[in-house]
Amino acid sequence: MSGSRKLDHDLDLSDVPVEQLEFLPSPNPATPDDLRWAKMAGEARFNGLPDIQRTAERWGATILVITGLLTTLTVVRGASDLAALRDLWPHKILVGSFAGIALLVAIISVILAAMAAQGQPVEIVVSGPRFEEATGKATKTASGRLKWSRYLAVLVVPFYLAALGIMAYAPQATDQPPRITVTDEVGGTYCGTSAKKQGGNLVVVGEKGVVAKVPLSSVVNLSPVAKCLGKK
Q1: Does the predicted TM-score (pTM) go above 0.85?
Q2: How far is Cα 205 from Cα 209, in angstroms, rounded to an integer?
Q3: Helix (H), strand (E), coil (C) string for the chain
Q4: What are phi and psi of 231, to 5 degrees?
Q5: Exposed end of the chain (fewer CB within 10 Å): N or C?
Q6: Is the peptide bond before 90 cis (omega within 30 degrees of 0)?
Q7: For the segment 125-147, what is each residue's pLDDT rounded down to a tens digit?
């Protein structure tokens, strides 16, 4: 066409007469698959928020089961499991800290999943573009909360495994050697790791050496105990 000119598709053509335009075939014509993908992309714009909310609801139910299990193990068995450990520091404190962090992170993950599933109410506006903008913002917020919920759920695992590992390999209260208490006729009680006869005395020995020498004639009781409570 005489006098025609080729124009870039990004230019503003509103002031160009039609007779000056030259239309050429696309070098990459659309295939049926391209058209189908374009249609699905258009539908996803309208279904994005409901789809994310349904996914978050299912994910929330899953993580809620995990949180319930952690709560049961921490609250119901936690006290007895900690009592089985011998040392307060570092083992009991570390186990309690790791288990508490795991439970807290799991609860936050559940809350984020619930917030993603419920979402925020989109303001009803009469303008289509404004409503589209509000829906897009709500979709982005719900998607971000769902992602963080999943990240935190994964973070629960190392904390909980660390607590289990310490409980499995830390010294147990039952690992302590047995204790022996010796009571004399005046009510004095002496506790140590062992007791042996030496001359006319019963020598009570502790971890730091001899605790007491009690005359055999005054011994009224000799019994094993779990731990020493002190001496009278």
Answers
A1: no
A2: 6
A3: CCCCECCCCCCCCCCCCHHHECCCCCCCCCCHHHHHHHHHHHHHHHHHHHHHHHHHHHHHHHHHHHHHHHHHHHHHCHHHHHHCECCHHHHHHHHHHHHHHHHHHHHHHHHHHHHHHHCCCCCCCCCHHHHHHHHHHHHHHHHHHHHHHHHHHHHHHHHHHHHHHHHHHCCEHHHCCCEEEEEECCCCEEEECEEEEECCEEEEEECCEEEEEEEHHHEEEEEEECCCCCCC
A4: -125, 150
A5: N
A6: yes
A7: 557 777 778 778 888 899 999 99
CA 228 to chain CA centroid, Å, is 39
Type of residue numbered 10 = D
Side chain identity at 109, as an amino acid letter?
S
**Which tokens in the block code for residue 92?**
């009991």
